Known about the structure:
- The complex is a heterodimer.
- Chain A is of the alpha/beta class.
- Helices cover 40% and strands 18% of the residues of chain A.
- Chain A has helices spanning 49-59, 62-69, 81-86, 113-132, 172-189, 194-199, 206-212, 223-236, 244-250, 255-271, 284-287, 289-309, 323-329, 342-354, 398-404, 409-418, 433-439, 451-461; strands at 6-10, 19-23, 34-39, 42-47, 76-78, 95-99, 135-137, 145-148, 151-154, 160-162, 313-317, 334-339, 359-363, 391-394, 422-428, 462-469, 475-482.
- In chain A, the strands form 5 sheets. Chain A has a 7-stranded mixed β-sheet, sandwiched between helices. A 4-stranded antiparallel β-sheet of chain A has the order 3-4-6-5. A two-stranded antiparallel ribbon of chain A has the order 1-2.
- Chain A starts with 5 loop residues before the first strand and ends with a strand.
- Chain B has helices at residues 3-6, 11-20, 23-40.
- The interface between A and B is medium-sized, with 36 and 29 residues.
Amino acid sequence: MNTSGTLxxxxxxxxxxxxxxxxxxxxxxxxxSARVFTSGDQVYRAMSAEAFINWQQVSNQAFFQKRSLxxxxxxxxxxxxxxxxKLSIPNHVAAVLKHERITFISYPYEWSFGMLRQAALLHxxxxxxxxxxxxxxxxxxxxxxxxxxxxPVFIDIGSFTPLVPGxxxxxxxxxxxxxxxxxxxxxxxxxxxxxILRSQLEGIPARQFIQWMRWTDLFRPGVFTNGxxxxxxxxxxQATQTSTVRDLQSSxxxxxxxxxxxKNLNRIIERLKWAPRRTQWMSYNDTLPHVAQDxxxxxxxxxxxxxxxxxxxxxxxxxxxxRYSKIASEHASVVVxxxxxxxxVERLFNTSFESRSNILPLCIDLANTxxxxxxxxxxxxxxxxxxxxxxxxxxxIIHHLVLAANIPLPDVIDWLAxxxxxxxxxxPSKQDAMVRALLRNKRDQYEDYSLEHLESELQKQFRIQxxxxxxxxxxxxxxxxxxxxx
Amino acid sequence: MNxxxxxxxxxxxxxxxxxLVGGFGGIMVVGRYLWMQLRGHE
Lengths: 486, 42
């Protein structure tokens, strides 16, 4: 495996072969037969001969065409010979597919419960259709689903293969570890799965899942068979000289068993519910006086900036109920709405999913954003490397970063500038009731936390386009434009 | 750690499970599978 993400091969068999470099996506190396690469703004997939035949077969199926049309399977087409020549594709690549580009790539450890649930359901629905049509998905990774705004899209076209009669679903275990067990943990035990999936990129093994369950949970749908029994079978199955897949084939296994299991899994996940405990952030916007006083002015400010700057991608940091994300979404292609509170993100996802809006809500702790990780630290990209926002909305957050997370103010401004977009920033002064509450039981070591210092730091990297005091009297809004756009 | 276990694919258990949850027909498949394993070790 060439891990640099670049495959260097020689061109035609002439005497002076031309070195060719194909920029593979650093996270697309597990399936060698259908690797993703990019060129400019376009996303392509280099197919082996076998993978290309599989794609031709599945793309002619009615279910595939229907789900592609309604946006549940990523838009895909084979590139022309002219485009292939322009890209200098080497001869050993049988065909190249071009995919619709998803504006912002997100990862399961950033999703809320509802998002992972929708990803799992889409995966199962496509798989049930595929098995009915004599196909199967060889992988069951939630990374194969992305969100176009609030709607899930299946992106791993290379995962479709012909169903081999008598062969079990090889990805069942992966489905349990990466989708079913995290969902059951959240629904039955209230354990936030994001931190686990962030550190265990391959998911939660059955043995570990069972340790989190109480014995009474064994009677809840999905736990006994998929969890306990699977864990026991994994422990008890002895190493054999023969292939379990072939032995099961010759023992009479057939695809009806797969269909039955998929429908059972679908039923379990469809009925799963997670009722988050009410957190302090869920009623934040309804209960505090400054929110009521300033809300209208902030909404108008955000609307005005969006109307004048026409941002393509907006990041709303600390989005809470998403009221400013919703305003921005009327003017942007996509709004990535981030909050560390899982309950808030779940609530925003549910409303966005229902209204099919272009808001992508994510669980992000701004003081500890998603890092680069996986194989050689390149498989999963850090949050900031997955797209540049044209506008960053940073309302009611900076005092938490500086006074609660103890991040120096210049560092916060530097990070915001590094994102590269325009900035809408709200600064609550030390006279603000919420800032006073944050400092009530702390030694005030925050001499740098002042309006003057903020403006001076902002002006190092931004041009202040607009400044407005809010009606509550202790908060100021800024619209700042980067001096040196990234 | 048992050296053999390091080379053992634990997904074998999940493959068997797919037959086990397949009702009466699935249990018959598992029975035939276990019979084959037993005869293989004779």
